[in-house]
Amino acid sequence: MPGRIIETDADVAEGAAWLARLDPRFAMALERTGPLPLRRKPDGFAELFSAIVSQQVSTASARSIWGRVEAMGATSAGAVRDCTDDDLRSCGLSRQKIAYARAIAESGVDFDGLRDLPTEEVIATLVRIKGVGVWTAEIYAMFSLGRADVFAPGDLALQQAARSLFDLDGRPTEKVLRDMSLAWSPWRSVAARLLWAWYHIEHKREGIR
């Protein structure tokens, strides 16, 4: 079963209130950030492709590249298959990301079927696609499928935010942050939203597109 799904702002507020009761540092952060964003996105090919675009580039660059992909109409598996490499390169995609886009287009993933799978199976299904790593799969599960209890501990902005909010000696590793996040279950996705909002306050930069 997929577990709790975040569908509305009220769901996010419920999770945020739970986290604030759990840890006074979350409560302090929430006072400064204010209400957290819903950040729900559609699911399907386009959103997974968009997550690939966001890998290892700034949020501003990702937004710009994706805007050009949308303008070209290359947001479906069929459209990507019809594009030449030069077409996709003109959008700002690297050779590697072009290969990843084609891998998603040829993967045959049943995106509708993912909605009914446990999060662990969603991630396992997606990471079998070339170019889709754990971070990308976790972000997809979090925002496109609305899973309430998934985290992305490999995310650098989340690591920086955790270091600051919890006054750690250094930026936590992916393993350390994953272990920390277990205490935030069953609202780890809301904890991620709160940490991204805290990152924005601390660094004056967006941590996620």
Q: How do the helices and strands line up, and which of them pair or pack?
A:
Blueprint: H1 9-22, H2 24-33, H3 45-53, H4 59-72, H5 77-82, H6 85-90, H7 95-105, H8 111-114, H9 119-126, H10 134-144, H11 156-165, H12 174-181, H13 188-203
Helix pairs in contact: 1-2, 2-13, 3-7, 3-10, 9-10, 11-13
Radius of gyration: 17 Å
- Quick one: CATH class of the largest domain? Mainly Alpha
The helix fraction, in percent, is 55-70%
Number of strands: 0
SSE succession: HHHHHHHHHHHHH
Count of runs of 4 or more consecutive helical residues = 13
Contiguous uncertain segments of 5+ residues: none
- CATH architectural category of the largest domain: Orthogonal Bundle
> If you average the pLDDT, what whole number results?
95
Instruction: Find the CATH topology of the largest domain.
Output: Endonuclease III, domain 1
Tell me the count of domains: 2
**SS strand fraction:** under 5%
Sheet of most strands: none
The name of the CATH superfamily of the largest domain reads: Hypothetical protein, domain 2
Shape: globular
Gap from first CA to last CA: 28 Å
- Class of secondary structure makeup: mainly alpha
